[in-house]
Design brief:
The chain is α/β, with parallel strands linked by helices and about 500 residues long. The chain folds into two domains: about 280 residues, Aldehyde Dehydrogenase, Chain A, domain 1 (3-Layer(aba) Sandwich); about 190 residues, Aldehyde Dehydrogenase, Chain A, domain 2, CATH 3.40.309. It is built from 15 helices and 22 strands. The strands form six sheets. A seven-stranded mixed β-sheet has the order 14-15-16-13-12-18-19, with helices on both faces. Strands 9-8-7-10-11-21 form a six-stranded mixed β-sheet, sandwiched between helices. A three-stranded antiparallel β-sheet has the order 5-6-22, with no helix packed on it. Strand 7, helix 6 and strand 8 form a beta-alpha-beta unit. Helix 5 packs parallel to helix 6 and helix 10 crosses helix 11. It is globular. It binds NADP nicotinamide-adenine-dinucleotide phosphate and magnesium ion. The site of NADP nicotinamide-adenine-dinucleotide phosphate (NAP) has 26 residues, from helix 8 and helix 9.
């Protein structure tokens, strides 16, 4: 094994946790992989191994699914009173909040994001998600229905948990993505097998301890660490799983759909995006510059809803490009735990190479670099400079494909193209999100209707709340996360009719 290295800035508790002999949670017990295999977890700010975690494979998946099946078919969780389930969710939220600093340190260390950001965004939003869903536990209900078939019937619907749920999550918001998945499924009374992303398993393993401490019965949540092919694929295909909820790439989303055909398990998908931000000449330009820069640079562009296509009216094009470029040039790159950090490294060597490859392909195809570029100037770690490209055309890969890094294409439009701009904004296989920057109320509403995406922000971008449904049109996914809508992902509807 390589020597483990840990950032000296983390607290003793975090350092101790990172150095522990990591175990997965299966059936209420903390266990190694059946094979005994482990794999390394990297610190992306240094490119060094932080620790090792168990490598789950088919046998571990089978054990976790059997535990979740038992917990669903025979255990107390789906049969518990809604208020008790709600209390447990609230308790999970309290425990995460109590350990907020530790979770933020783990997230920063493992994913690379600034500690300051994890502390005010990832962890509090996670806490909020559990509290919001704790409230829903007692409010899930059916309806009574008048039948045209006649007056001699009493009919009503029951909303029942869908059953055993497999949840597969990515590395961009490791803890928050776990919460988006776990909290609603638990509120509905489901039992779960959660597979963490191979790049970022640490906060999820710490969360497994919190779930145990909160008193979840054995098998209700099982947490696996492993690779997509070795653990994710057998989980998605498993005959005893009733539902799979996936967040990640559109490419793997399609594999999940295929894997689900064996037993026709239900599927929801939260996939990629190539989200447009549209700046009109009447926008408050300062706010549009700050907002559209943050739309792409937040979380180093590793957001499925990143505003990666920036359409700017020609009257304000130079001013906005210059402004966003200034923001980009001023961003301080540093390890996430460095107090001066404004942007950390990308999550992995693979993402680093991919994103730099996109910047280079843009340049080769004729794009101009207004800020940033392929060289980061940082010696160690997977750092990429926030980059602004101009002079692109709609056929370039950088304009068409999801880069998942801090790279934005700034594209001008003219008055003559006002109608066509919606078409251009919609001209992608994705439909996750968009933002519109204008003070014209009527234009804002018209654009919100015309854009084919699950979220439209006006004069803001990346505003998330547990109450707001989030998800994609077109190839950005199936179903919605968060809000009341997410409950549909984890419930079946049963119609009961009684002849009176
Ligand atoms: P990914 O491959 O789609 O991974 C997402 C999750 O699916 C991970 O837990 C992954 O396991 C698992 N997985 C991979 N192959 C699988 C399979 N055949 N069956 C079941 N599960 C499988 O995404 P990625 O490789 O981490 O990133 C690639 C690209 O996906 C990014 O560049 C970005 O474009 C996109 N992405 C989108 C989102 C989003 O929020 N929409 C998030 C992350 C990435 P491993 O951890 O072992 O890979
Ligand atoms: Mg992967």
């Amino acid at each position: 094994m390589a020597t483990l290295s840990i950032d000296p800035r983390v607290s003793g508790r975090t350092a101790d946790f990172v150095a522990t002999d990591h175990r997965m949670l299966i059936d209420g017990r903390f266990v190694t992989a059946a094979s005994g295999k482990t794999f390394p977890v990297y610190n992306p700010a240094a490119g060094e191994v932080l620790t090792y975690v168990p490598e789950a494979e088919t046998e571990d998946v089978n054990r976790a699914v059997a535990a979740a099946r038992r917990a669903f078919d025979e255990g107390p969780w789906p049969r518990m009173s809604p208020s008790e389930r709600g209390r447990t969710l609230w308790q999970i939220a309290d425990l995460i909040e109590k350990n907020l600093e530790e979770f933020a340190e783990l997230e920063s260390l493992d994913n690379g994001k600034p500690f300051k950001v994890a502390r005010v965004a990832d962890v509090p939003l996670t806490v909020d998600m559990f509290r919001y869903m704790a409230g829903w536990a007692t409010k899930i209900s059916g309806k009574t229905l008048p039948l045209s078939a006649g007056n001699d019937f009493h009919s009503y619907t029951l909303r029942e948990p869908i059953g055993v749920v497999a949840q597969i999550i990515p590395w961009n918001f490791p803890l928050l993505m776990a919460a988006w998945k776990l909290a609603p499924a638990l509120a509905c009374g489901c039992t779960i097998i959660l597979k963490l992303a191979e790049q970022t398993p640490l906060s999820g393993l710490r969360l497994a301890q919190v779930l145990d401490e909160a008193g979840l019965p054995p098998g209700v949540v099982n947490v696996l660490t492993g690779f997509g092919e070795g653990a994710g694929a057998p989980l998605a295909a498993h005959e005893q799983v009733d539902k799979v909820a996936f967040t990640g790439s559109t490419e793997v989303g399609k594999l999940i759909v295929q894997a689900a055909t064996g037993n026709l398990k239900k599927v929801t998908l939260e996939l990629g995006g190539k989200s447009p931000a549209l700046v009109f000449p009447d926008a408050r330009i300062d706010a549009a510059i700050r907002g559209t820069a943050s739309a792409i640079f937040f979380n180093h562009g590793q957001c499925c809803c990143a505003g990666s296509r920036l359409y700017i009216h020609e009257k304000v094009f130079d001013e906005v490009v210059e402004g966003v470029s200034h923001v980009a040039e001023d961003i301080k790159l540093a390890p996430g735990l460095d107090p001066s950090c404004q942007m950390g490294p990308l999550v992995s060597d693979e993402q680093y190479r991919k994103v730099v490859g996109y910047i280079e392909s843009g340049i080769t195809d004729g794009a101009k670099v207004a800020a940033g570029g392929p060289a980061s100037g940082v010696e160690r770690g997977y750092f990429v400079r926030p980059t602004v490209l101009t002079n692109t055309n709609p056929r370039m890969k950088v304009v068409q494909e999801e880069i998942f890094g801090p790279v934005v294409c700034a594209i001008p439009f003219s008055d003559k193209e006002l109608d066509a701009i919606v078409k251009r904004a919609n001209d992608t296989l994705y439909g996750l999100a968009a933002s519109v920057w204008t003070q014209n109320l009527s234009l804002a509403h018209k654009m919100s209707r015309a854009i084919r995406a699950g979220t439209v922000w006006v004069n803001c971008h990346n505003v998330f709340d547990a109450s707001l449904p989030f998800g994609g049109y077109k190839q950005s996914g199936w179903g919605r996360e968060m809000g009341e809508e997410v409950l549909n992902n984890y419930l079946e509807t049963k119609a009961v009719t009684i002849a009176l």
